[in-house]
Design goal:
Elements (H helix, E strand, L loop, with lengths): L7 H11 L23 H10 L3 E2 L8 H8 L5 E3 L8 E2 L6 H4 L4 E5 L3 E2 L4 E5 L9 H4 L2 E6 L4 E2 L2 H7 L2 H4 L3 E4 L4 E3 L5 E3 L6 E6 L2
Parallel strand pairs: 1-12, 2-3, 2-4, 4-7, 5-8, 7-12
Antiparallel strand pairs: 5-6, 6-9, 10-11
């Protein structure tokens, strides 16, 4: 009889590959005290998005999403991670990180945004398990509904089921950025060079 020994790394990787999402009832969560400003308005979100280096791209009357994005990036290689935006190729077409690095613009749908931070939420569900690919694109276009805004992290924790159902989630406030000790801010240092939100309602 042959005994197979697994080290801790193998066990952890095997569990990750199973992608078994824990059910909320297995891990009861404490009650959350609602603190902070409860303003979940698009105006608050927009102000904080701009403060964090993000931008808004308005659609002209009668303009489709594809036309709006092409107006901003006329010659770009565009990849779509959502069925509501038609691009030359989909995120699921990317076979390697090297191919993702060649993408100029990635278009994604965010399930919700947080007004307090001007942040958007993404998980493996929106990105079809291509989590790294979205960060390797040069520019990120985020489709977001004004009706899917929540006020702050407290209300997001209480209201949004995505926090419970996602195996992996990330909040993004503007493009990536870094600053040295002299206070020089560089955007797009480790990830996307720009993050643009387009309202879809």
């Amino acid at each position: 009889m042959t005994t197979i020994h697994q080290n801790a790394r193998d066990v952890i990787l095997a569990k990750l590959r199973e992608k078994k999402i824990p059910q909320p009832e297995q891990f009861p969560l404490p009650d959350v005290v609602t603190l902070g400003d409860l303003d979940a308005s698009p105006k608050r979100f927009e102000d904080n998005l701009l403060r964090m280096g993000g931008s808004l791209w308005p659609r002209e009357e009668g303009e489709s999403l594809e036309e709006a994005v092409r107006r901003k990036f006329p010659d770009a290689k565009i990849c779509s991670a959502t069925d509501e935006f038609k691009a030359s190729f989909k995120i699921t077409d990317l076979r390697s990180l090297k191919e993702a690095n060649l993408v100029d613009v990635m278009v994604v749908r965010s399930p919700f945004g947080i007004a307090e931070m001007g942040a958007i939420f993404l998980s493996e569900k929106e990105l079809s398990d291509h989590l790294a690919d979205v960060h390797l694109a040069q520019h990120l276009i985020v489709l977001l509904s004004k009706s899917d805004l929540t006020a702050n992290m407290h209300t997001a924790y209480q209201e949004r089921e995505e926090f419970k159902s996602a195996a992996y989630g990330v909040l993004m406030s503007g493009p990536s950025a870094t600053a040295d000790i002299q206070g020089v801010l560089i955007r797009g240092a480790q990830g996307v060079r720009s993050l643009t939100v387009i309202w879809t309602d």
